[in-house]
Amino acid sequence: MHASPTLRTAARPALVLLALGLAAPAALAGKKNKKKDAAPADAPAAEAAPDTPGDAASVKFGKRLLEANISNFRPSDAGGAKFLYTSLRFQADNTWKAEGYVEIDDERMECVETGKWSMEPAESDKVAVVAWSVDKTDCAGRDAGASLRAKVSIAKDGSVKTEWR
Fold first, then answer.
1. pLDDT at 60
2. What's the farthest any 2 CA atoms get from each other in the chain?
3. What is the pLDDT of residue 78?
4. What are the angstrom distances between the C-alpha of 98 and each of 73, 103, 121, 156?
5. CA pseudo-torsion sign 23, 28, 34, 37
6. Angle (CA) 20 22 27, round 5°
7. Which of 4, 91, 109, 141 has its CA 20 to 30 A from that of 81?
8. Cα–Cα distance between 24 and 18 in angstroms, integer?
9. Do the beta carbons of residue 50 and residue 143 sit within 8 Å?
């Protein structure tokens, strides 16, 4: 006795589903093993460090600069309008960001500046010449492309003193 053609056609999808059902656990088992080989999500990340000269004093200064919380900093000692960074932070990717304001007469205009920074080999872990350029600014009277260079001294308490170069 031969099966009718309709029974053979109807049985094929069931066989295909059965074969997929048997193969799926093996495929999933392979994926589970791959996850076990991956590094744990809570593994400590490498500490971010800026690109500084390689000597020990410069490396230490670079780390101290990143930790410094610089506030009420005048990026220019030129006369005229009052220009103040209320907050200035140097980042490990050698960028910086400052929030502040320009004040002319009684009008105060909040603004933000960002850019890149670099340093010369440090005199000590507390003193180095740092240069930073302004890549973006919305501060009145300021233009992108400006650059600043100063001898920066960082005290134990994190306060910063600058001597313009």
1. 94
2. 107
3. 60
4. 9, 16, 24, 22
5. negative
6. 80
7. 91
8. 10
9. no
Instruction: Say how many CA atoms lie within 13 Å of 160 toward its Cβ.
Output: 26
Q: Which residue has the tokens 């907050």?
A: 87
State the DSSP H helix or E strand holding residue 6, giving kind and residue range, or none if neither. Answer: helix 5-37
pLDDT at 122: 96
Question: What does the block give as tokens for 165?
Answer: 């170069």
Q: Please provide the DSSP assignment of 85-153 as one string.
A: EEEEEE-TTSEEEEEEEEEETTEEEEEEEEEEEEEPPPSBTTEEEEEEEEEEE-STT--TT-EEEEEEE
Return averaged pLDDT per consecutive 10 residues of the chain, 165 residues in all: 48 42 45 46 54 91 91 77 92 95 91 96 96 94 89 90 86
pLDDT tens for residues 101-115? 999 888 999 999 999
* Cα dihedral sign, 57-63-66-70: negative
Provide the β-strand partners of residue 132.
117, 148
97 has which bridge partners? Answer: 89, 114
- Is residue 55 within 8 A of residue 75, CB to CB? The reply is no
3-class DSSP assignment, residue 45: coil
CB distance 106 to 93 below 8 Å? no
